[in-house]
Amino acid sequence: MPLKKSYVALTWTRPVPWAGFDRLSSDINAAAKQSRTIRYQRDLIRQYVREVHGVLEKEVALLELAPDRATPESLKILENLVRECSSQATFLSVDFTAAQGWRPQPALRQGIPIERCLALAPDPLLMDGKLFDPQAHFRAWRQNEKAHAQSRPKHRQAILKALVGQEGLSWPKKADLLNAQDLRTHGGKPWTADNLRKFLAVPDKDGS
Fold first, then answer.
1. Are the C-beta atoms of residues 63 and 12 closer than 8 Å to each other?
2. Are 52 and 80 in contact (CB under 8 A)?
3. Which alpha helices (H) appear in 13-150, and where do they start and end?
4. Closest C-alpha to 134, from 44, 17, 31
5. Which residues pair with 55 in a beta bridge?
């Protein structure tokens, strides 16, 4: 009986600090609970492996920090995978760019030998009884990002309101006060004395 073909699942997503999403579990199943995009990729790849009667040797979830290049962190993980996994394993990923050029991921092209890569089409997939369409999902996120960008003036007013009557505090104390109220920069980062000073000095900047 021939051995089953071995596969390695590569899934990834990007952080959204302003939405509180800036960490991803290294465990694929935990990561799938944190990110619907990760879950979609995991389930689509698992479905493919079942259909071809293969075996999943390993599943990896990456949080890709850079939108337009492969970060050193991702490349290091992928290079280690190539060394650790069997030499016959095929690396599976989902090619989101096949759908209107969504989400290119340079790390997956640079870190793995091309002859060992296989990219699946980003087809809709049934999840929890509902059809998950990655194109619709990314379009919705684009609208969310647009709405967030437009909320900058409202965010600024909230910060200024929280600092009313606190003029006598030092910059570090003011930053601590805002962070204690869970008021972050518009980009989702904690306040520091430095970025708060810049935020208040330049009206159209938030220090993030």
1. yes
2. no
3. 28-34, 36-51, 72-84, 106-110, 134-150
4. 44
5. 6
For 94-150, what is each residue's pLDDT tens digit?
A: 988 765 555 556 666 677 888 899 999 999 999 988 999 988 888 887 888 889 889
Q: Which residue carries 């430095």 as its tokens?
A: 194
Rounded to whole angstroms, how far apart are CA atoms 12 and 35?
Answer: 9
Angle of helix 134-150 versus helix 36-51 axis, rounded to 10: 170
Q: What percent of the chain has pLDDT over 70?
A: 88
**Is-above-0.90 flag for pTM?**
no
Give the distance, in angstroms, between the CA of residue 62 and the centroid of all CA atoms in the same chain. Answer: 8
CA 199 to chain centre: 26
Q: If we measure between CA atoms, which residue out of 81, 11, 13, 14 comes closest to residue 43? A: 11
| pLDDT tens digits, one per residue of 25-40 | 989 999 999 999 999 9
